[in-house]
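Appendix B, record 7
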Amino acid sequence: MTVAADADAFLRHVAIERGLSANTVAAYRRDLTVYTVWLDGEGVGDIREVQPVTVSTYLAHLGSREESPLTAASLARMLSTVRGFHRFLLEEGRVEVDAARDIRPPKLPSTLPKAITVDQVAALLAATDGDELDHLRDKALLELMYATGARVSEAVGLNVDDVIDTDVVRLTGKGAKQRIVPLGSFAQVAIAAYLVRARPVLSARGRATPALFLGMRGARLSRQNVWLIIRAAAERAQLGVEVSPHTLRHSFATHLLAGGADVRVVQELLGHSSVATTQIYTLVTADALRDVYATAHPRAR
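C-alpha cells (predicted):
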C-alpha cells in the first residue's frame, strides 16, 4: 500500500466516520499532500519506514523553507494533521509505532482576538438601516451574527426552520455539531422584518430553497457575499478599522465576558470544544476588570 493510498484512507475516515466538514477535510488534504510529496522526495515509499526523526526533519523543513514561509500557527496546524494521520495508521494496524506522537509543535505567540467596541458595533448595524430588500437582509444577517457569535459558515448555512420560536436559533458548527443560541430582541425584530418584507421577494427570483439568507437572485448567500456586506457596512459607518465576519464573533464573546457572563456559558454559545479556546477572551477584558475593581473595592485605591 502506498503512502498516497494511506492518506486517502485517512481522509475517508475523517470525512465519513468522524463527519468533519468539507472545508476541514479539504484542509487536511492540502496538508497531507505537502507531507506525502515531501516523503516521496525523501525516498520514503512505505509509511512504515517513517520514524520520529523523519517527522522532526519534515517539521524543520517546513520551518526553514524560504519560499512561502509558514507562520507558527500554520506549522502547528500542519503538524496536527500529520499527527492525526499517524495516530490513525496505528489504530488501523498499518504501523506498529506512532512516529509523530512525541513531536511537539512550535510555541505559538499569544495573540488577542480583534474585537470592536459596543459603540462601533452599533454604528455598523445602523449602517444597514433602510427599507430596501438588501438593507432588510443585511440588517437581519448582521444582527444575528452579533447576537449569536455565529461563524460566517454557520450563518450562511442557516435554513428558515433553524429559527425556532423566533427567539432562538439552531447553529450547525464544525463537525456538524449543533447548538441552540438565544436571539436578542434587536435580532428578533430584524429577522422578522426580513422574513416578512424581503425574503419572499428574493425567494421568488430563484429556485425554491430552505436557506434563511438569500442573495439578490434568490440563491443561498455565500460566505464571500457576507464579507462584502460587512465591508460595505463598515465603510458606510466610517469605523476606520478593518471588520470581518469573525470580528462580530470576537466582539460577541468579548462583550459578553465584559458584561459578566461566565466563560463556560460563552464557550457553549461559541461552540468551542475546549474552554481553553474561549479563555483567550478573558485577556481582552482584563482592562475592564481592572476598572471595575478600582471603583468597587474599598481597598483598591
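Remarks on this record: Residues 14 and 180 are 25 Å apart (CA to CA). Strands lie at 163-164, 168-172, 178-182.
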